[in-house]
Amino acid sequence: MTSSTITIHSPDGEFTAYRAAPKSGKGPAIVVLQEIFGVNKVMRDICDDLADQGYVAICPDLFWRIEPNVDITDKSQAEWDKAFDLFGKFNIETGLKDIAETVDLARRDKDGTGKVGAIGYCLGGLLAYLTACRTDVEAAVGYYGVNIPKYLQESENIHGHLMLHVAGKDQFVDAAAQKVMHDGLDDNPHVTLHDYPAQDHAFARTGGDHFDPEAADLANTRTRAFLQAHIG
Length: 232
Prior knowledge:
Blueprint: E1 2-10, E2 13-21, E3 29-33, H1 41-52, E4 56-60, H2 77-89, H3 92-107, E5 116-121, H4 123-134, E6 139-143, E7 161-167, H5 175-185, E8 191-196, H6 213-231
Parallel strand pairs: 3-4, 3-5, 5-6, 6-7, 7-8
Antiparallel strand pairs: 1-2, 2-4
Helix pairs in contact: 3-4
Keywords: Hydrolase, Ligase
Protein name: Dienelactone hydrolase family protein
Domain Dienelactone hydrolase: 15-230
């Protein structure tokens, strides 16, 4: 695995992304969509793991318009306060523009195959859903995405494949919101929802307060099979 920081040029300006590529040569590309803590070690480790699986993983700095190069953890109250402040200032629409630029770059990556997927967590889980709705990615995976019910009407635009991992005890996505998601998406042939009834938000974040190794392994195993089936 090799990694580097790359620059993405967009009509609104330049922003950076962490890129990890497989040693084996070419592979499908995956755009990794951050949590509210920026492109931190958790996100970089996810990219590195995807590269070890044979993918070109690219994680764009989606907070660059607010504050470039955010890299914080979930280990202190001050960092949580900053993360929620950034989340409050984040503009979904401009973020999706940056994701679309990243998807386009990933599709043209010198080590890519032309196929592109997306995977996101928390805020990135919502963005993965919207990436499936608004871009031409072949596959997208969202872990415990927030605020998805607000955008359910867009699901009719999904032409690729989408998988959502839903935490049953998610403190940010209550049971009513989860029901709305199921009611709106269960009959969509492009979408698969997996429920983890006993889990709280961020159950797959290694080292997090709600990390559950068994549930995380199950979700990650499902994700690997899903990506393999749809982008190779």
